[in-house]
Amino acid sequence: MAAIRDIVKSVDQSTEASAETKETLKILMDMVEAKAELFENQIDNNLITGKTIDNLNVPITKVISRKKEYRAVTSNRSDIIEEIGKSFSELFAGDESVIKSISSIVGKAFKAMMGVGKGQEGVSEMYEVIAEYPAIVRFDFKFWYRNIESESIFKYMENVFAVTAVKSVVDTSKLSFHDFIALYGPVLKEAFGDDKTKIKAFLGDAKEIYNLFQDGDLHNAGDLIQDYIDNSAVFYSVKSKPFTLTQSRVIESYS
Q: Superkingdom of this entry's organism (predicted)?
């Protein structure tokens, strides 16, 4: 897997590639970057109202981080998930299990999109709501993937994709704890199986964080969350309480 710009630059300097191939690659690169920009705008518009891809609204107070990636897949597809996981790891606080969980979720989306035929494309989007001390945060992801059909391009790349991710702080005054647990709870069952002790401990920690932002503690919670936003680099570099990701809400559509 490689950055599209690197491939385009390499081909542009080549004497073997035709002018038509070089121009097509540049157009493809522009299209991939435009997709990522479009997805970012679409996510931002959804965040204004708290809209999600299902029927539950998850309003936010502030976007705190965003990331876009444009990549080309060459002959080796096996490294896609690992590479994306590494690229987006900076968005997450906590231990390695968080990054691995995201990689797994992303992997499911890409496996679905990889099934499209030559010359076809796939779109997938998802969101996660997790407890990431001292905040409840929302992650929105949107992906675009296209299989290359042209033989002149296929020799340089088999597929291209764009990934956009936005991280934001959830407005817990507009999200009930019951709804939050509906998003966060299933992954605890998946992570710990029938270990009720661990599940209960994680639910207790989640409730503690949620309660920080209720009426009696709004001032202290506001200070905490502002520190979280202002010093996000610090929070990213240390291990927070070991919360894991929620079950993803995923849809796929193909055109």
A: Bacteria
Strands 135-147 and 249-254: unpaired
d(CA 130, CA 124): 20
Task: Judge whether residue 62 has pLDDT over 70.
Answer: yes
pLDDT of residue 147: 81
Contacts 24+ apart (CB under 8 A), 20-28: 20/152, 21/152, 21/153, 24/150, 24/152, 24/153, 25/153, 25/156, 28/4, 28/153, 28/160
> Up-side HSE of residue 252: CA atoms within 13 Å toward CB?
16
User: For a pLDDT cut of 70, what percent of the chain falls above it?
Assistant: 60
Q: What is the pLDDT of residue 92?
A: 77
State the average pLDDT over residues 73-89: 65
Q: Which two tokens stand for residue 161?
A: 């994709």
* Rounded Cα gap, residues 87 and 71, in angstroms: 11
Half-sphere exposure of 148 (CA within 13 A, CB side): 22
The DSSP secondary structure of 154-192, one letter per residue, reads: HTT-SEEEEEEEEEEEE-GGGS-HHHHHHHHHHHHHHHH
Cβ–Cβ under 8 Å, residues 80 and 108: no
Residues ≥6 apart with Cβ < 8 Å to 176: none
As a dihedral over the C-alpha atoms of residue 91, residue 97, residue 102, residue 106, rounded to 10 degrees, the angle is 140
